Amino acid sequence: MLSKKAQNITPSLTLGISTKVRELVKEGLDIINFSIGEPDFHTPTKAKEAGIKSIEENHTRYGPASGLVELRQAICNKLQKENHISYNVDEIVVSSGAKHAITNTLMALIDPGDEVIIPKPYWVSYPEMVKLTGGTPIFPTTKKENEFKLTVEDLEKYVTSKTKLLFITNPSNPSGAVYTKEELESIVNYCIEKNIFILADEIYERICYVDNFTSIASLSEKAKEITITINGLSKSVGMTGWRLGYTACNKTLAKAIGALQGHLVSHPSAVSQHAGISALTQCDEDIKLMVDTYKKRRDVAIELIDSIDGLSYVNPEGAFYIFINMSSLKDKISYGDHFSIALADRLLDEGKVAVVPGAAFGMDDYIRISYACSTEVLLEGLERIKNFIEEL
Q1: What is the pLDDT of residue 8?
Q2: How far apart are CA 131 and CA 316, in angstroms?
Q3: What pLDDT, on the 0 to 100 scale, is given for residue 89?
Q4: Based on the domain organization, do 356 and 316 belong to the same domain?
Q5: Sheet containing 321-325: which strands, arranged edge to edge?
Q6: Low-confidence residues in the chain, pLDDT < 70
Q7: Strand, helix or coil at 105?
Q8: Cα distances (Å, whole numbers) of residue 114 to 106, 197, 254, 261, 322
Q9: First and final CA of the chain: distance in angstroms?
Q10: Cα–Cα dist 16/339, whole Å
Q11: Is the pTM of this model over 0.90?
């Protein structure tokens, strides 16, 4: 009955964990949830007020398939000011979240048989999105000593005549690593030479603890031509449920993405778009407070992790995750195909802490924790992990 596409999809480990956590909480258990990939900050007041005002003024009808012109202009202004990239309104397509923006891009670019390079560790949905849109995901292994950031040497081993697209996530989910300008330049120059498009997922770019964040499309006009920048408001402005993402790319591709979106969903929620205009133009102080808070939590978390024997991690310079190497526990845990899944199950059942197993990101020796929670909850959860390890 089901299509081959539906049969070929791997269930989301993160959704499975979330479901189990909800069930345990309903049973009255005290669970600390480090698995969630969602800001614990509410949508800023000015953005909420703009959404309410749009309803009261009846801005609730169909609009342009690619998004409201006012919002697309606000995105252009943001990219010019913060990312040093010049786009026109007709090169921006607003979508129902960054996931939707990525799917739109893949539908517009990928034919059956095309290969899409997704460096490990990767965000859990990338491979499934590629398979759903007819592509073949290819997984280069990156090195921990390079903070799991892709190099040309890693990349060139996997490039073939079928390679169409490369994913670069910056800052990284799950590791929080941030590429330097020089690291990106070498990758971009190679992709220009090999005629490979780059999908630059920069959804976490405003949650960055270094001053030298570089957007790939800002490197040169040639870089801009082959890059599809993916961004949105879920992470940077705490607007996960509003579902607003966008692509910024060359005019030909943007036109195709807009046409696809017009047939599939028409356009994102009009109310969300009006709130998004305010989020991009009036909420800088809210974003700064959020990022400063995350940075303080990160510092607290890594100090405690450093005190636990046998653990190591990639120093997170962005996002709100820590990717922790747990391989020192392998001889203490019984497991089948996946060590990290068995470990995560035991941490939840015995330690009452929910984490995401590294297998979800293609790296089975690791777990991912999120510090999108209060400092008190963060410290309590890490203490539980520490106690669990000591009792093994």
Answers
A1: 85
A2: 29
A3: 98
A4: yes
A5: 312-313, 321-325, 366-370, 356-357
A6: none
A7: helix
A8: 10, 12, 20, 21, 33
A9: 46
A10: 17
A11: yes
Residues 212 and 346 in one domain: no
Distance CA 86, CA 220 (A): 11
CATH of residue 300: 3.90.1150.10
**Contact by Cβ (8 Å): 365, 331:** no
Task: Quote the tokens at residue 227.
Answer: 């890059």
pLDDT attached to residue 231 = 98
Q: What is the pLDDT of residue 11?
A: 78
Distance CA 21, CA 239 (A): 23
Q: Are 168 and 187 in contact (CB under 8 A)?
A: yes
Count of the separate structural domains present in the chain: 2
CATH no. for residue 124?
3.40.640.10
Answer for the pair 135, 114: CB distance below 8 angstroms, yes or no.
yes
Would you state the structure tokens that stand for residue 151, as one six-digit string?
Answer: 């190099």
> How far is CA 373 from its chain centroid?
18
Q: Scanning the structure block, which residue is given the tokens 């800002």?
A: 218
Cis ω for the linkage preceding 112 (within 30 of 0): no
Residue 204's domain comprises: 45-282
User: Locate tokens 């089948």: which residue?
Assistant: 336
Dihedral-angle region of residue 148 (phi above 0 means left; psi in -120 to 50 means alpha; beta otherwise): left
Least Cα distance to 33 among 385, 328, 310, 316 occurs for: 385
How, if at all, do strands 115-117 and 245-248 pair?
A: unpaired
> For residue 126, which of 83, 159, 174, 160 has the smallest C-alpha distance?
174
Judged on CB neighbours under 10 Å (0-12, 13-18, 19+), 320 is buried
- Mark whether 277 and 301 lie in a shared domain: no
